[in-house]
Design a protein that fits this description.
The protein has 225 residues and is an alpha+beta fold. The protein has one domain (2-220): Pseudouridine synthase. The chain has helices at 31-42, 71-82, 158-165, 215-220, and strands at residues 2-6, 10-15, 52-53, 62-68, 87-94, 102-112, 117-121, 129-140, 145-151, 189-197, 204-208. Strands 1, 2, 3, 4, 5, 6, 7, 8, 9, 10 and 11 form an eleven-stranded mixed beta sheet that branches.
């Protein structure tokens, strides 16, 4: 992970695809603990370090993760994420681009807890949650397309599931139908930018995360702002 923004109340890091945000059954050290360790060592803090997890990224996804360094910031950020006051933009590399260069996808997602997977339906279904995203084709190589995605809702595996539903699974995402995994276990989904009004100081925060150091990411994002 790399720290891309920090002040007294929040810290934003660019996570690698191998890092988990919170602890799970693997027992691997989570990103939250790594960030706590960074704060403790950087500022020589005695005792336990407070760090609030505001949102998550799936393990194979790279990009921006926001943490709260104070309880005040945590409470306000939780409200802001819940109320849609935080704008997150993602970049995804897919083999087959959608038919339209730009558009909105609306589906109804049902989460299967046992499989840790969501299923998308075109019509409302019992227990389903409405999922909406906006996409735009912004780059391509000979074999792949780069989509910029803005989420209107925040559902489990939403981008992965919705893109797969329209025949555009993300490169490397075996769970959602891409035929081959990436060598490093990642999928080509990156939390590219995040924008919000600071929960305490009220200044505008706009942060962008560099893409993974990978030949495909480098080639497909050349000349893309």
């Amino acid at each position: 992970m790399t720290v891309v923004y920090e002040d007294n109340h929040i810290i934003i890091v660019n996570k690698t695809a191998s890092e988990i945000v919170q602890g799970d059954k693997t027992g691997d050290m989570p990103l939250s603990d790594i960030v706590k360790q960074y704060i403790k060592e950087t500022y020589a803090k005695p005792g336990n370090v407070f760090l609030g997890v505001v949102h998550r990224l799936d393990r194979p996804v790279s990009g921006l993760v926001v943490f709260a360094k104070t309880s005040k910031a945590l409470a306000r950020l939780n409200d802001m994420f819940r109320n849609g006051e935080v704008k997150k933009t993602y970049w995804a590399i897919v083999k087959d681009a959608p038919e339209s260069i730009e558009g909105e996808l609306t589906h109804y997602l049902v989460k299967d807890e046992k499989q840790n997977k969501s299923y998308a339906y075109n019509k409302e279904k019992h227990g389903a949650k409405k999922a909406v995203l906006h996409y735009k084709l912004i780059g391509h190589t000979q074999n792949y397309s780069l989509l910029e995605i803005n989420l209107m809702t925040g559902r489990h595996h939403q981008i992965r599931c919705q893109l797969a539903k329209v025949g555009c699974p993300i490169k490397g995402d075996l769970k959602y139908g891409f035929p081959r995994s990436n060598p490093d276990g990642s999928i080509c989904l990156h939390s590219r930018s995040i924008s919000f009004v600071h929960p305490v100081s009220k200044i505008q925060i706009d942060v962008v995360a560099p893409v993974p150091k990978d030949n495909l990411w480098r080639d497909i994002t050349q000349g893309v702002e």
